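User: hey, got a sec? need Lipoprotein folded
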Amino acid sequence: MNNILRLSLIVMAVLLITSCVNTKITNYYGTPRLIENSRILILPTKGIKDYWSQNLYEQTKVQFKDTEARLLYLPEEEYNLIKSGISKDMLDHLTLSDSITLSEIGDKLGVRYIIETRLNNFKDGSIYEFYAEKELNQYNASYNSDDESSEADMIFNVYAIGSKSIEAKFLVHTSINSLIIKEDEGAESHVNVTNKMTALYDVYKKAFKMIKKNMVSAKS
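Assistant: Yep! Here you go:
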């Protein structure tokens, strides 16, 4: 991992520790129970820039370094896949409904699972707000705390090559609220030094933490 990425992840971690973070996971169906010694192909996250998607993948590699699983990232495998006969256009427009192409990829790379991620919501919170006591009165409130929160949520699909089906689908939502500093005469300062990218990192990390936690032994 390069120094810039390492520093970025450290900063994100510090911001999360010092902020009020709320994360919720909603299971649409299934629970990801991946066999722990499997190869897992991660697709680029839809809805964000390529370099952010790459950073999220690098974060996940660190999370899984103490497991038997081997993570692969589609853009890093493109050259070999194209060389083996899969067209660049097919890879660029790959979806989990392309079962034939997915099977080919599974054979070429030896992967058992493919994980697709898609950004669903993304919002920056306000950085700093000051409220006098009368503005904080519930009957005279001039602010909405939701507007101060940095938020992100993503949908995750876990596809099994063997069954040619999506075995689990879930949504992860993270909201990072402002730190509240009490001031004189009942006033408050609300400070949020995070942004939507901080929330996005937390979403991705929590999703793969759950996937990692639910992995099952190949012997079971």
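Quick note: The longest helix spans residues 196-213. Let me know if you need anything else on Lipoprotein.
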